């Protein structure tokens, strides 16, 4: 949950999308896919917002991205799009985040998607979850799919999985949560498998 709605923060300033001003919008669901390769991870997050008011809102969003000594490089590719409106959303790059605006018609559900590709030179990936608590309520529903190719071996996954499925060329780690108020970020560590 990486949406920063300042003052409502979803993931600490480097966790989930945060809105830049308190808004009467509910962040109630997310679906996250993390595809791991040896030195690059692709993250695709689909986020669901509910505008229960009768008025349309234009909401500024700050979407933080983890940059630290294990993830030192800002993503080389980023895409933001409205799934409900089927169009690209322009964004600007910040030091450790991107910023964009969401148009939310009254009494509607808005679905948007952020995808990014980040270099992972140290066999480590982190996705921010902890900002969810700054909204003051749990996610109603969340799904997490993590794909690890067969040439890599999982060393650590901070998220408890509901199902692990081996598809031959990759393994899928799946988790479904309801009433989810995460206490820690998703951290994944891996290494090359021995031949």
Low-confidence runs of at least 5 consecutive residues: 4-15
Q: How many strands?
A: 15
Radius of gyration: 16 Å
Please state the average pLDDT score.
87
Q: What is the makeup of the main sheet? A: 8 strands, mixed
Helix tally? Answer: 0
CATH class, named Mainly Beta
* Euclidean distance between termini CA atoms: 36 Å
Number of domains: 1
Structural class: mainly beta
- What strand order characterises the main sheet? 6-5-9-3-2-11-14-13
> What would you say the CATH architecture is?
Sandwich
H/E element order: EEEEEEEEEEEEEEE
How would you characterize this protein structure?
The chain has strands at 18-19, 26-36, 40-51, 57-64, 77-82, 87-88, 91-93, 97-104, 108-119, 124-127, 139-149, 152-157, 163-166, 170-180, 186-192. It is built from no helices and 15 strands. The chain has a single domain (18-192), classed as Immunoglobulin-like (Sandwich). It comes from Caldithrix abyssi. Keywords: Signal. This is DUF4424 domain-containing protein. Residues 1-21 form the signal peptide.
Characteristic key phrases:
single chain; DUF4424 domain-containing protein; signal; 55% strand; Immunoglobulin-like; mainly beta; 195 residues; 15 strands; eight-stranded mixed beta sheet; four-stranded antiparallel beta sheet
Would you spell out the secondary-structure blueprint of this structure?
Layout: E1 18-19, E2 26-36, E3 40-51, E4 57-64, E5 77-82, E6 87-88, E7 91-93, E8 97-104, E9 108-119, E10 124-127, E11 139-149, E12 152-157, E13 163-166, E14 170-180, E15 186-192
Parallel strand pairs: 2-11
Antiparallel strand pairs: 1-4, 2-3, 3-9, 4-8, 5-6, 5-9, 7-8, 10-15, 11-14, 12-15, 13-14
């Amino acid at each position: 949950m990486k949406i920063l709605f300042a003052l409502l923060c979803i993931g600490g300033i480097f966790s989930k999308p945060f809105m830049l001003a308190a808004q009467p919008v509910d962040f109630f669901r997310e679906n996250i896919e993390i595809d791991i390769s040896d030195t690059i991870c692709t993250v695709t997050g689909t986020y669901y917002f509910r505008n229960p008011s009768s008025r349309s809102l234009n909401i500024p969003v700050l979407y933080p991205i983890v940059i630290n000594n294990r993830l030192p490089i800002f993503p080389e590719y980023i895409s933001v799009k409205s799934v409900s409106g089927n169009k690209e959303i322009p964004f600007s790059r910040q030091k450790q985040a991107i910023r964009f605006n969401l148009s939310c018609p009254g009494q509607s559900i808005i679905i948007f998607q952020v995808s990014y590709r980040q270099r992972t030179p140290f066999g480590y990936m982190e996705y921010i979850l902890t900002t969810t608590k700054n909204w003051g309520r749990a996610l109603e529903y969340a799904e997490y799919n993590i794909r690890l190719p067969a040439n890599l071996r999982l060393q650590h996954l901070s998220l408890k999985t509901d199902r692990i499925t081996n598809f031959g060329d990759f393994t899928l780690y799946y988790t479904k949560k309801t009433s989810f108020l995460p206490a820690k970020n998703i951290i994944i560590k891996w290494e090359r498998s021995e031949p």
